[in-house]
Amino acid sequence: MTDVYLFRAVNVGGTAKLPMADLRALATELGATDVRTYIASGNLLSTPPGDPGAFADELRAAVRLRYGFDREVLHRTPAQLRDALLEHPLDVDDPARSYVTFLDAVPAAAAVDAAQAVESGDDEWAVVGDHLHVRFAQGAGKATLSTDRLLRALDVVGTARNLRTVAQLETRAGEAP
User: What is the pLDDT of residue 41?
Assistant: First the structure.
């Protein structure tokens, strides 16, 4: 089965450069098959050589060793991507302004309550299981809501993708390489 591995914060903001060709080669070296990437923001599609969670950990360690930076790698199945799209509780007027942040854990209820204090302006957010859903009223570039501040309040690590990207990843994971 083709799974999706989402790297946090690579190839954005001038730090943590990870060429996608190198990522594909690295995944192949670690035993993955059907290896592909989608756009340059750290989206790997592959069939892992064993346990998908262990493979995510192996990818993280290999990138840290080879490239000298440490970035979380979150694993999702195509079904989990589809569920994240279907469960999106916010109005979607433009899929490029609506995001799913894939979390490494389900935030505690007390943390979700405390995170309500994070300034959001016209932006909206909601936690559904291990996904943080966000809609930026004016787009991410003009956001009042700081997703980083929100993740710190929720006490979790996550990596965000807009709904268009999530839909593409879900579709591509279901296609033959």
Answer: 83
Q: Are 134 and 166 in contact (CB under 8 A)?
A: no
Lowest mean pLDDT among 13-22, 60-69, 139-148: 13-22
HSE value, Cβ hemisphere, 13 Å, CA-based, for 88: 27
9 pLDDT band, cuts 50/70/90, is confident
**Cα distance between residue 28 and residue 163, in whole Å:** 28
- Helix, strand, or coil (residue 153): helix
Distances (CA, A) of 88 to 36, 122, 177: 26, 17, 28
**Whole-number Å distance between alpha carbons of 3 and 74:** 11
- Count the neighbouring beta carbons within 10 Å of the beta carbon of residue 176: 5
Query: What integer best gives the mean pLDDT of the chain?
Result: 92
Structural tokens at position 84: 């994240």
Block residue for tokens 């993708």: 161
Q: If DSSP codes are grouped into helix, strand and coil, which group holds residue 10? A: coil
Task: Tell me the chain's radius of gyration from C-alpha atoms.
Answer: 16
Asked if 107 and 156 count as a contact pair (C-beta separation under 8 A), the reply is: yes
Largest CA distance in the chain: 46
Q: What are phi and psi of 103, to 5 degrees?
A: -100, 155
Q: What are phi and psi of 7, to 5 degrees?
A: -85, 140
